[in-house]
Design goal:
By secondary structure, the chain is mainly α. It contains twelve helices and two strands; from the N terminus they run ααβααααααααααβ. Strands 1-2 form a two-stranded antiparallel ribbon. α2 packs across α9. It is globular and about 55 Å long.
Length: about 300
């Protein structure tokens, strides 16, 4: 698909709130190179929070629970707690995030797909995040069209409206407990790592990897993205079975997010866990055709 004149934001149409947050997060992450701000405890905090906010908050809650309803939380208040954890990833509120992702599935790799690689790798990876339709800046018309179910829930509306309060409280807590090392690593470095990990699904997992299913888009299964995103990198599997709680379908396709959902079901915190119904043998993975270069 050729590059169109809607592929990049028009002058004056940059969403400055997400753009500013992106700049601040990356500048703050550079402080990790200062020896005074390093400690192994801070690094471990960053790794744990990457899993908690990115793996549990975004991959499991925002994506598999709220966007696709691949399982149900029990009790309901747990869904709200998990959503608040997702807010700490600094990817916007759940309603706006869900709207963007449902739109992606409806128009995947087409002109209306907000983060299609047809517009270039850089666009799909991070530049799309600073346009007005970004998850931090989605308008009411967009959210009403794509996430009416969440808009009808007053708790989700509250969490979406005040989503930036949660990462701010997390940053204050990190500083109070561990000082600047914890803030730099658990706050800035972890935020940047979560953002780029999840953005790789939009960019790399639509360009490189193998296809197990003949979907109408260019989604790919990419092992190293799957490792960085707790199973989300088995993206072609996901596009073939979007409501499935399990993305890694072969025995070697590691899916830690699915493991977390099964653990929740085991202790009675999740039910109605959906899995794909494959009625015919899956085709062997095939190498993708060359991705057309953006012009």
């Amino acid at each position: 698909m050729p590059l169109t004149d809607v592929s990049r934001p028009h002058p004056g149409k940059v969403a400055w709130v997400p753009a500013s947050l992106m700049i601040v997060a990356h500048l703050g992450a550079l402080l990790a190179f200062v020896p005074a701000f390093f400690s192994w405890k801070a690094v471990l905090v960053a790794v744990f929070l990457h899993w908690l906010t990115g793996g549990i908050g975004i991959c499991m809650t925002y994506h598999r629970l709220l966007t696709h309803r691949s399982f149900v939380c029990r009790p309901k208040w747990l869904e709200y707690v998990l959503t608040a954890i997702g807010c700490c990833a600094v990817e916007g509120g759940a309603i706006s995030w869900v709207s963007v992702h449902r739109r992606h599935h409806a128009h995947s790799d087409q002109e209306e797909d907000l983060h299609s690689p047809n517009r270039g790798f850089g666009w799909a990876h991070m530049l799309w995040w600073i346009v007005p339709e970004t998850p931090l800046n989605a308008d009411e018309e967009t959210t009403q069209k794509w996430a009416p179910d969440l808009l009808s829930d007053p708790v989700h509306v509250f969490l979406d409206r005040w989503n930036l309060v949660f990462p701010a409280l997390l940053a204050v807590t990190l500083f109070a407990i561990g000082g600047l090392p914890w803030l730099v690593w658990g706050g800035f470095v972890r935020t940047v790592a979560v953002l780029h990990s999840t953005w790789l699904i939009n960019s790399a997992a639509h360009i490189w990897g193998y296809r197990s299913h003949q979907t109408r888009d260019r989604s790919r299964n990419l092992w190293w993205v799957a490792l960085l995103t707790y199973g989300e990198g088995w993206h072609n599997n996901h596009h073939a079975f979007p409501t499935s709680a399990r993305h890694g379908l072969r025995w070697w396709e590691i899916d830690m997010t699915h493991w977390a959902i099964i653990a929740m079901r085991t202790v009675g915190l999740a039910r109605s866990v959906k899995r794909p119904r494959i009625t015919r043998p899956e085709p062997e993975p095939v190498r993708p055709e060359p991705f057309p270069a953006a012009t």
